[in-house]
Amino acid sequence: MSSVHDEALDETHESDRWRQAGDRIEALLDAASAGGPVARERAEQLVREVVDLYGEALGRVLTIAARTPGLVDELARDELVSSVLLVSGLHPHDVETRVRTALDSVRPYLGSHGGDVELVDVSEDGVVRLRLLGSCHGCPSSAVTLQLAVEGAVQAAAPETAAIEVETDDREATPTPGVFTVDSLMSHVREDAAGNGTWLPAEEFADLAAGEVGGFTVGGLSMLVCRLGDELFAYRDRCPACGNSMAGTTMQRRAGGGLNDAVLRCPSCRAHYDVRRAGAGIEEGHLDPLPVLTRDGVLSVAVPAAVTG
């Protein structure tokens, strides 16, 4: 088990390393500026030459790969290969296809809260319009998911995107009283998760048994994680009613609720929160949900930038 865990950590560190390559290149270019504008210009020209060289090689790779059905699509699904193809202007898929693929990657999280996301259109000026569907559009996790998961996935798959606009499905029923809407929470979430937050590995969540609640600290943030069937739900470890930690809480079936209904009860003030409905309070308030997704094969949780700095 430990060797598998170590291998996953190595893969995560390697993934983080190439994701930060752009920042390192920019830092090196800035350092070259200390030698004056001529040194900076030569350094930038060197980067362009290397990109052009690898771009030419990648173009030939795609030409060869096209001879094998499905191979080009398989290459495009790899996050690192896809990003290099984008930089080189060689990505085989158009913006709409890449956005649809990105949305498919976050659907498991939205689905765990009874919701979905639909691509309305991509305008000629690069504006992506999305629509939140199902009960997802009326719960507090919608705003968090939008900022930390949906927008991040779309921007990574289609960096040329100019803006992302989100609408809710007016055909859906009015949200249950006490559950906040996307509009009422969006401004708060954007301030709280500026910079789209940070996805951090959280493979220890997978050790939770069905019906179990565990306390974890990831990226300096204390959180509660519960498993309801095959689904994982994560929240900040803070009761909004009394402000205390929820340490020691257990999942219970709501009175009169169905088999899959579950609530968390604050040990201090006895307030109850619906696990499946993104921590919505039975009496009032709501827990702060945190998106949990599998990214590059690694179970990860999104920690707001306001926490990680």
From TrEMBL:
<dbReference type="InterPro" id="IPR034904">
    <property type="entry name" value="FSCA_dom_sf"/>
</dbReference>
<feature type="domain" description="Rieske">
    <location>
        <begin position="200"/>
        <end position="301"/>
    </location>
</feature>
<dbReference type="Pfam" id="PF00355">
    <property type="entry name" value="Rieske"/>
</dbReference>
<protein>
    <submittedName>
        <fullName>NifU family protein</fullName>
    </submittedName>
</protein>
<dbReference type="InterPro" id="IPR001075">
    <property type="entry name" value="NIF_FeS_clus_asmbl_NifU_C"/>
</dbReference>
<dbReference type="Pfam" id="PF01106">
    <property type="entry name" value="NifU"/>
</dbReference>
<comment type="function">
    <text>May be involved in the formation or repair of [Fe-S] clusters present in iron-sulfur proteins.</text>
</comment>
<dbReference type="InterPro" id="IPR036922">
    <property type="entry name" value="Rieske_2Fe-2S_sf"/>
</dbReference>
<keyword id="KW-0411">Iron-sulfur</keyword>
<keyword id="KW-0479">Metal-binding</keyword>
<dbReference type="InterPro" id="IPR017941">
    <property type="entry name" value="Rieske_2Fe-2S"/>
</dbReference>
<keyword id="KW-0001">2Fe-2S</keyword>
<keyword id="KW-0408">Iron</keyword>
